[in-house]
Amino acid sequence: MIGARLGAGREAEVYEWGNDAVVKLYRPGFLGHRAEASTLATLHGHAAAPKLLGTVEQDGRVGLVLERLDGSDMLSLLLHRPVRLFGLARALAETHLVVHEVRAPPGLPDLRENLATRIDHSVMPSPLRDFARRALDGLPDGDRLCHGDYHPGNVLVTADRVAVIDWVNAARGVPAADHARTLLLLRRADPLPGTRRIAQALIAAARSTYIRGYARAYAAGSPQPVRQVDTWLVVHTAARLAEGIEAERPTHLRFLDHARAGRRS
């Protein structure tokens, strides 16, 4: 049943699977299928994610068979249809809020524990690591579903729905923590290697407007006040350093330095 390859990432490849499905085959050694399968099963009946149709094994690799959604990821739409920027910013926020209404399934990792581990493995001066860990110690636990890597590239827009993909980093926590991770990615994540210069220019020009639209729509739609986002940003910035993205490293370190200085003054 396996067909043409549709895409590939660090952990998995996606192939056609019959006429109406795809299979996400995980590379050997990666175990993200556990969190993804558990999350998609919990989201069954919600339009905010593809349906999980089954689990298979192909050439010794675990695969998740997923509903095939015909559409474009939101990042591609932003690049090719910038006139839709405001509507897409609202859709990003509204879909994120839908995710955060869901109670995380049993067995998902605790977001705060994940962040603590990543901070401990980040390369940074000890005073900044200590600052980030103290910030994390003052933040709350939660039981809501958090995507862990929510950004326009992981959101598919079809003719009649918006759906979130790539749940390998799903965890349980408070919505504000997941919201802050998205703000970090929108504000400071570098375009992927190989992104054309014209696309980079479009991203730079529209970024601030898009971020404001997302943040305002998220705050307006949240059933509870969105608290401690600045502190969560400190923690996520320190954890982001563990991902080893050298192009972003100076920006993150400057942010942590300024945040630490501000807390001391």
Q: How many individual helices?
A: 9
Q: How far is it from the N-terminal to the C-terminal residue, by CA?
A: 63 Å
Q: What is the CATH homology-level superfamily of the largest domain?
A: Aminoglycoside phosphotransferase (APH), C-terminal lobe
Which percent range fits the helix content? 40-55%
What is CATH's topology name of the largest domain? Answer: Aminoglycoside 3'-phosphotransferase, Chain: A, domain 2
Q: What percent of residues are in strands? A: 15-25%
What does the secondary structure layout of this molecule look like, with pairings?
Blueprint: E1 2-8, E2 12-17, E3 21-26, H1 32-42, E4 52-58, E5 61-67, E6 71-73, H2 74-80, H3 85-100, H4 111-120, H5 126-137, E7 144-146, E8 155-158, E9 162-164, E10 171-173, H6 175-188, H7 197-221, H8 229-240, H9 249-264
Antiparallel strand pairs: 1-2, 2-3, 3-5, 4-5, 6-8, 7-10, 8-9
Helix pairs in contact: 3-7, 4-5, 4-8, 5-8, 6-7, 6-8, 8-9
3D structure, described in words:
The structure is a single chain. This protein is of the alpha+beta class. It folds into two domains: 2-67, Phosphorylase Kinase, domain 1; 71-264, Aminoglycoside phosphotransferase (APH), C-terminal lobe (Aminoglycoside 3'-phosphotransferase, Chain: A, domain 2), CATH 3.90.1200. It is 46% helix and 18% strand. It contains nine helices and ten strands. The strands form three sheets. Strands 1-2-3-5-4 form a five-stranded antiparallel beta sheet, covered by helices on one side. A three-stranded antiparallel beta sheet has the order 6-8-9. The longest helix is centred in the C-terminal third of the chain and has 25 residues, at 197-221.
